[in-house]
Amino acid sequence: MLESAAKNGVDKVTIMHGWIIAYLYNNQDNDIFQKNLESEFSISRSSVTNILQLMEKKGYIKRESVENDARLKKIVLTEKGMSIKSSIDKAIISNEQEFDSIFTPEEKQTFLFLIRKLKTGISGQ
Fold it and tell me: Rounded to two decimals, what is the model's pTM?
């Protein structure tokens, strides 16, 4: 996925950055705060802080004050973040097309079944 993203012009976006960018993109109509990301991705406050600082440094996001509480900062995608989202989408489509060209529909079904089974087994659900 990272290799495909790089081919589409994404500069070493980590998987977590990609997930956060997609989450922010899909929730543009809502105010998203650090706390939302902590619970959505089940990661610690310090980890989210470090991730957001790096994303802000790279210009993917910005923090904006909220009208009713100056202490709160909502997290918003920048134009660069939106562009990265578009590049990630292209990489995903490219990967899916390559996946589809390698496997028959039956093999794809079996593969996805096994991946889900593995995920369930690992998570203990």
Answer: 0.75
